[in-house]
TrEMBL record, chain A:
Entries under InterPro entries matching the protein: ABC_transp_permease
Keywords, in A-Z order: Cell membrane, Membrane, Transmembrane, Transmembrane helix
Any single GO CC term annotated in Swiss-Prot or TrEMBL for this entry: plasma membrane
Membrane topology classification: Multi-pass membrane protein
Protein name as annotated: ABC transporter permease
MF (Gene Ontology): transmembrane transporter activity
Major localization listed first in the record, in broad terms: membrane
Biological source species: Cellulomonas biazotea
Organism lineage: Bacteria, Bacillati, Actinomycetota, Actinomycetes, Micrococcales
Keyword presence, Transmembrane: yes
Region: Disordered, residue numbers: 1-24
Membrane-crossing segments per the record: 36-56, 160-182, 194-212, 244-264, 293-314, 373-391
UniProtKB/TrEMBL annotation, chain B:
Record keywords: Cell membrane, Membrane, Transmembrane, Transmembrane helix
Transmembrane segments: 33-56, 76-94, 106-124, 130-154, 161-181, 187-210, 217-235, 270-292, 326-344, 356-379, 400-420
Provenance organism: Cellulomonas biazotea
Protein name in the entry: ABC transporter permease
InterPro entries according to UniProt: ABC_transp_permease
UniProtKB/TrEMBL annotation, chain C:
Source organism of this protein record: Cellulomonas biazotea
Official protein name in the record: ABC transporter
CDD domains referenced in this protein's UniProt entry, alphabetically: ABC_Carb_Monos_I, ABC_Carb_Monos_II
A GO term, aspect molecular function: ATP hydrolysis activity
GO cellular component labels: plasma membrane
Residues of the ABC transporter domain: 3-239, 255-499
């Protein structure tokens, strides 16, 4: 016999996951934390926006032409432009120190008003992201929700509380169905929800545009594609009197955030949502019907987005037109991403972007900086937080930390 | 042990004939076509009011040969056209049943017949004549940005990078084309500049998707927001401040191809366009060959289908992806230039969702250049028809027509009109 | 070409996948590398092919030390590899796949398809492969796809061809053909490295056999060795895994599988008319080489697959076609084969994972609402009971070691009243301490009166646990034997290779002498010596 035999326990070794041998240092923890990433991302975005502001500022351009002769002029002009823009943004969004009396706090209430639809739609998208579904369709869901709320608002005539509740419910159902189409197609045919929801956005826009040309939505006797105003009882009650536009929708949005937190963290349905989002195979093995979860997630997400659309009509606009949804749906994507798909994060992100929205008109009138700067800030923030390693590479704090022995490679691993 | 012994020598050096794998019969397409043809027969043909007529105008302003308007009885014509389509659909079904592929020309003829039946029905009893040549010319013009956009998506996705940012690339291309053309006073210089803007957006996409493994859909969506924000901002500031120098681009001149442009109908439709249209012809033809027949295309597709396999034969996966993404995005930038080739001034969100339609065209065109061309032409036609009918008055609301591309795409991805199969490794970052 | 590996060591974190491997592949030989799953064979070949960089040691080609930065370098050095999972692009033609990466071109950049076809034909004809260069790879049977891989390697002038588990996916006929091809290649001067764990094939073709276990070369054998000898070399001798278990006291047969047939998407019977009974208080082990239908069998029991025919009777009720959660609620505990992909959700906390398939039911949920307190309380109990080493039950389960992760799965599945317990590869990848613990718990579950089904490809585990052993081969149960002392490892090994029970007994009896002596020696040492260690006790 030519075989040589060695004895050994039979089971073969395989990779085992071991807990990290050494805990990262406090400095590393701070630098790698989500909060730091978010803060640094916001700072970088504001910095980039400042560059744009200076680039478009006539005085700075003039000063730049002789920057080598008198550099101080350029920096002064640039500083003025940046300061005017951001101070106007602050006065428009948070606190107007130049106004008198109660009007001084009006900006912060406007920020809250703008954040309402963003919170609701962002919450819905966050649920989708955590459940592994890329719902790009909040825009369409917001739009059909707004249309449904408006329709129920002006066709029905119901008592005080009932009307607004019915109109909101109608919006939830409409948004839910609109998103549910994508969920159903994904569950039944495997169709990518990304493509389907993108397509449904456009279909929603043309559908409401069409309905606005018909008797269904158009104000009788008008040729303009706009609905009649919704009934008084269908409007969200104002919270701080008629001086402010802040309406009860803000409370609804906060309640929804608490509700979504409960759903995702405390309910069995949310447990299944998260399980499917984290590992479909394990979820299936644990007896979770993955297909049904797809549909449920989209129904809930669409319902929230639809409610967001309702808030736009019942809280502020009163009438509905094809542009009522603005870019809420797309902004909500950035809100959900910035908020890390968590309810609290979403609320904070929506307040931030709501503030940018609310402050931008004053920024435009007072400082002459176009509203569109806000979109740039928003996009840059979200791009950066999606790539934490990039933020680390870009951040000055990081460079400073490197001097004190912070190891980037170790942190990235 | 006997089963384990193999012949010591190969029994034959001549290969046995390989067994043919029975392909699955593809029912979806022909059956859908038959149903549509029957619906067309009933609605466009039989239900049309008797005695109504439809008028087509083929002539355009400066034709050498005068062609009179064509007046046809609506019901009979639509019915005949529908029956013709039905016959082709049945032939296709028979071919499928014998597991033979249905040639593309059959579907083209089918589509033309159904489309004509639709036109006859739409214009039945309408006093105006339908300007057919104009319709087709406009359709081609409108489809050009879509073709470039779809080609862009195709190049990125064939290499495994999902490009949702086509919209942003078109917009960036259009912006730079307008500004450069305005500054230089030469539309061709703008045409050269546009791809650079698209490529820049593509480079961002590649950076985030390939280097940082950020979800490609997120990057795409956010890049769109970023480009919209940037172009809006620059439009509101510098362009609005200096409209004469920065936002009044010259028109890209129309080039009539000698001889070909004089052919009735076909000439004005195909051969009297600005340079962008001819570039589009070239791009589709070249890419069709290059993607499927060249070394470059083979490697690009291998990276999008099975990156690990490509890696094991020494192909640099990520480098290939970055290059394809930037090249594709540059082509989308060119599409942006095509969008403003008529000398349009830049306006906010000029692209108005065309990038998403281009994405749809790429999917409907099954990730192939000629397919993208066909789908874009279909969408361009729907758009042109919408515009023409808006002026003439028609039974179809224009918003419903505008929905068509999106509905068609949903049907396609849900597998109702044949299966679409994206590149297998699309959207998955390659990590060694 | 003479190829040597000198002291190759490759680590993944704390795991040493290859530990100082020394091997020499002589030109024109078929060198078999025999070893079980996870023994480190594939890692070694990936080092050789430039896909991994070794942590120590070097590769020597014809006396020259070489470093391979990537597969390109390895190919340039004349090494070709046929991967276990084919590296072919399904939507490409055979010719396109073969030339990918070194394409012949005409006109600057267009692929010269005529030349590509010619290359395929040339190799194809030389070895009598019937491969159509224009066929799409995805339309080809697996066996033909493998030939495409071989053509791919040969078209790059490979002088050493590595075949990684080439027969794992082949039918017996295709295996025969492959063996013929390997002989031809050898005659043509190509060296072949044949990685496998299948004994009969090794004996049929190999010139040299090296056995790898736990990342080390533990021995060499000549092809004249009997299958029985090879089997014991590869599987090794059990040292410390004997489970202290009282004799089974089987009750009535409460789980009955009747003529179960399951078809895969292609319509092949992956489970083919399987019937067996499991009694209360009994462990039935299903032994067999990976991929013989065990996975499909267990997934069908759980309801992940639907049976095409036959019944799965639990207490007289047919489970076939029921939904997964219905099966779980019927009292079936299930430990999936791959815990990280199917058994656990890595990002979920330990506490959440401990209720994964019970999250709807009391006491954890009431009216759709989860009680974090009860979930945590449950976790505290389980962690205690199953000795799971955790910092906090709220930590993600991915922070645990493999052994503790598996304990989480077991703890969850055993924490409710069971009427059937099914565990697939319950100790794969675990350290010895964890293995012992898992085995004890399984025996305890049996002693509770639960019918237990264990699927394992590890013969030692089967022998340690089973009261009865069913061997599965190509979707069928090839025979059922009694477990315990009476079970003959050699007979089982032969049955796993597809030899029917009676024949296997005859063959084993004929070859038994030498090994029986070795067995006796080993057993004597175990009985007399101190507590056996987990280290390898070299006798070579």
């Amino acid at each position: 016999m030519s075989a040589t035999v060695q004895d050994a326990p039979a089971p073969a070794p395989a990779p085992e996951r071991k807990p990290e041998p050494d805990r990262p240092s406090y400095l590393q923890q701070v630098l790698d934390s989500t909060t730091t990433t978010v803060v640094v991302a916001i700072l970088i975005a504001l910095g980039l926006a400042a560059v744009l502001v200076v680039a478009a500022d006539a005085a700075s351009q003039d000063a730049l032409s002789y920057v080598f002769a008198r550099p101080a002029d350029f920096f002064e002009a640039a500083w003025n432009a940046i300061y005017e823009t951001y101070s106007a943004l602050f006065r428009g969004a948070i606190f107007d120190y130049q106004a008198e009396g109660a009007r001084r706090i009006r900006p912060i209430t406007e920020t809250m008003v703008s954040s309402v639809p963003l919170i609701l739609a962002g919450l819905g998208l966050g649920i989708g992201f955590r459940s592994g579904l890329f719902n790009i369709g909040a825009q369409g869901q917001v739009l059909v929700g707004a249309a449904a709320a408006a329709y129920l608002g002006f066709t029905l005539d119901l008592p005080v509380v009932a009307h607004v509740v019915v109109a909101c419910l109608g919006a939830v159902v409409a948004g839910g169905i609109w998103a549910g189409i994508a969920g159903f197609l994904k569950a039944r045919t495997g169709a990518s929800e990304v493509i389907v929801t993108i397509m449904l956005n456009s279909i929603a826009l043309y559908l409401v545009s069409y309905l606005l040309t018909t008797a269904v939505l158009r104000q009788p006797g008008s040729t303009r594609p706009i609905t009649p105003p919704v009934g008084e009882n269908a409007m969200m009650p104002l919270l701080l009197g008629s001086q402010f536009r802040l309406h009860a929708g803000f409370l609804v949005a906060l309640l929804a955030a608490v509700g979504v937190w409960w759903l995702m963290e405390r309910s069995t349905l949310g447990f299944r949502f998260r399980a499917v989002g984290a590992n479909q195979d394990a979820a299936r093995t644990a007896g979770i019907n993955v297909q049904r979860v797809f549909v449920s997630v989209m129904l809930v997400a669409g319902g929230l987005a639809g409610l967001g659309g309702a808030m736009q009509i019942l809280g502020t606009d009163r009438t509905f037109q094809a542009g009522s949804a603005g870019s809420i749906g797309f902004d909500a994507i950035t809100v959900a991403l910035l908020g890390r798909s968590r309810p609290l994060g979403t609320v904070l992100a929506a307040l931030l972007f709501g503030a940018l929205r609310a402050g931008s008109p004053l920024m435009q009138t007072a400082a002459g900086t176009p509203i569109d700067l806000v979109l740039v800030i928003q996009a840059v923030i979200v791009l950066l937080i999606a790539a934490p390693p990039l933020v680390r590479e870009l951040s000055v704090i990081h460079w400073a930390a490197t001097l004190f022995g912070y190891d980037r490679k170790k942190a990235a691993a | 042990m006997s089963t384990m012994t193999a012949p010591d020598k190969p029994e034959s050096l001549v290969p046995e004939p390989t067994t043919l794998v029975q392909a699955k019969v593809r029912w979806h397409g022909p059956v859908t076509a038959i149903v549509l043809a029957v619906l067309s027969l009933v609605f466009f043909g039989l239900l049309t009011a008797a005695g109504a007529t439809t008028t087509f105008r083929v002539a355009t302003g400066g034709d050498a040969i005068k062609i009179d308007d064509i007046v046809v009885p609506s019901r009979l014509t639509a019915s005949i056209l529908s029956v013709g389509a039905l016959v082709i659909a049945v032939l296709a079904l028979l071919r499928s049943r014998r597991r033979r592929p249905v040639p593309a020309w059959m579907w083209v003829v089918y589509g033309v017949l159904i489309f004509l039946a639709l036109l006859v029905w739409v214009m039945a009893g309408n006093d105006n004549a339908l300007p057919l040549t104009l319709l087709l010319t406009n359709a081609l013009g409108l489809s050009v940005p879509l073709v470039f956009g779809a080609l862009a998506g195709l190049l990125c996705e064939r290499s495994g990078v999902i490009n949702i940012a086509i919209e942003g690339q078109l917009l960036a291309g259009a912006f730079l084309a307008v500004v450069v053309a305005s500054v230089t006073g030469n539309a061709y210089v703008g045409l050269i500049a546009a791809p650079l803007a698209g490529a820049l957006v593509g480079a961002c996409l590649a950076l985030f998707a390939v280097r940082y493994w950020v979800d490609q859909i997120i990057v795409g969506v956010v890049l769109n927001v970023l480009v919209i924000g940037l172009t809006n901002y620059l439009f509101s500031t510098v362009l609005t401040a200096n409209p004469q120098t920065l936002n009044s681009p010259p028109r890209l001149p129309t080039i009539a191809v000698p001889l070909l442009a004089d052919i009735p109908v076909v000439g004005p439709v195909l051969f009297a366009h600005p340079l962008t249209v001819y570039l589009m012809y070239i791009a589709v033809a070249v890419l069709q060959v290059m993607v499927f027949r060249s070394r470059w295309g083979l490697r690009m597709r291998s990276v999008g289908e099975h990156p690990k396999a490509a890696d094991t034969v020494g192909i640099k996966v990520n480098r290939t992806r970055v290059r394809s993404t930037i090249l594709g995005s540059a082509i989308a930038g060119l599409g942006g230039a095509a969008l403003v080739s008529a000398g349009l001034a830049f306006t906010k969100e000029l692209t108005s969702g065309k990038g998403y339609i281009a994405l749809a065209a790429m999917i409907l065109g099954r990730w192939s250049p000629t397919g993208a061309l066909a789908a874009s032409l279909f969408f361009g036609l729907a758009d042109a028809l919408r515009r023409v009918l808006n002026n003439l008055g028609s039974p179809i609301p224009s918003d419903i027509l505008a929905m068509l591309p999106y509905l068609a795409t949903i049907f396609a991805v849900a597998g109702l009109v044949g299966r679409v199969r994206p590149p297998a490794a699309e959207g998955v970052p390659y990590k060694k | 070409m003479r190829l040597e590996l000198q002291g190759i060591t490759k680590r993944f974190g704390s795991l040493v996948a290859n530990d100082g491997i020394d091997l020499t592949f002589e030109p024109g030989q078929i060198h078999a590398l025999l070893g079980e799953n996870g023994a480190g064979k594939s890692t070694m070949m990936n080092v050789l092919y430039g896909l991994y960089q070794p942590d120590a040691g070097q590769i020597v080609v014809d006396g020259q030390p070489r470093t391979f930065a990537g597969p390109g370098d390895a190919m340039a050095a004349g090494i070709g590899m046929v991967h276990q999972h084919f590296m072919l692009i399904p939507v490409f033609t055979v010719a396109e796949n073969v030339v990918l990466g070194h394409e012949p071109v005409v006109g600057g950049s267009l692929i010269d398809l005529a030349e590509a076809r010619r290359r395929v034909k040339a190799i194809s004809d030389r070895f009598g492969f019937a491969v159509d260069p224009d066929a799409l790879v995805e339309d080809l049977p697996v066996g033909v796809q493998q030939r495409v891989e071989i053509i791919k390697a040969l078209s790059r002038d490979a002088q050493v061809l590595i075949l990684d588990e080439p027969t794992a996916v082949l039918t017996p006929q295709e295996t025969d053909e492959l063996i013929g091809i390997m002989r031809q290649l050898k005659d043509a001067g190509t060296s072949i490295v044949f990685i496998t764990h299948k004994l009969r094939e090794v004996r049929a073709v190999a010139d040299t056999i090296s056995v790898i276990r736990r990342g080390k070369v533990v021995g060499t054998a000549s092809p004249e060795s009997s299958e029985v000898e090879l089997a014991s070399l590869m599987v090794g001798r059990s040292v410390s895994l004997a489970v202290e278990k009282p004799a089974a006291e089987p009750g009535e047969a409460t789980f009955q599988v009747r003529d179960l047939t399951v078809l895969d998407v292609h319509g092949n019977a992956v489970v083919d008319g399987v019937s067996f009974d499991v009694h209360r208080g009994e462990i039935l082990a299903i032994a067999g080489v990976q991929g013989n239908g065990q996975t499909e069998l267990t997934e069908t029991i759980l309801g992940l697959d639907t049976p095409t025919a036959g019944q799965l009777l639990l207490d007289g009720v047919d489970l076939g076609g029921k939904k997964v959660h219905e099966v779980i609620e019927a009292g079936v505990g299930f430990v999936p084969e791959d815990r990280s992909s199917d058994g656990l959700i890595a990002s979920f906390s330990i506490a959440e994972n401990l209720i994964l398939d019970m999250h709807r039911s009391a006491p954890f949920a009431r009216a759709g609402s989860l009680s974090p307190a009860r979930v945590a309380e449950n976790a505290a109990h389980r962690v205690d009971e199953f000795d799971i080493r955790v910092r906090s039950v709220q930590d993600a389960v991915s922070t645990l070691s493999g052994g503790n992760q598996q304990k989480v799965v077991l703890a969850r599945e055993m924490s409710r009243p069971l009427r059937l317990f099914v565990a697939s590869q319950p100790t794969r990848g675990l350290d010895v301490g964890s293995i012992e613990f898992v085995h004890k718990r399984i025996v305890a579950e049996r002693d509770n009166g639960t019918p237990v089904v264990i699927v394992s490809t590890e013969l030692d585990e089967v022998l340690a646990l089973a009261d009865r052993i069913a061997v599965m081969y190509r979707g069928k149960i090839i025979g059922i034997v009694e477990g315990g002392q009476t079970a003959d490892r050699d007979v089982l090994g032969l049955m796993m290779a597809g030899v029917p029970l009676e024949q296997a007994r005859e063959q084993a009896a004929g070859h038994h002498t030498a090994l029986a002596a070795a067995d006796a020696v080993a057993q004597a040492e175990e009985g007399a010596g101190p507590a056996p260690t987990t280290d390898e006790e070299g006798t070579a």
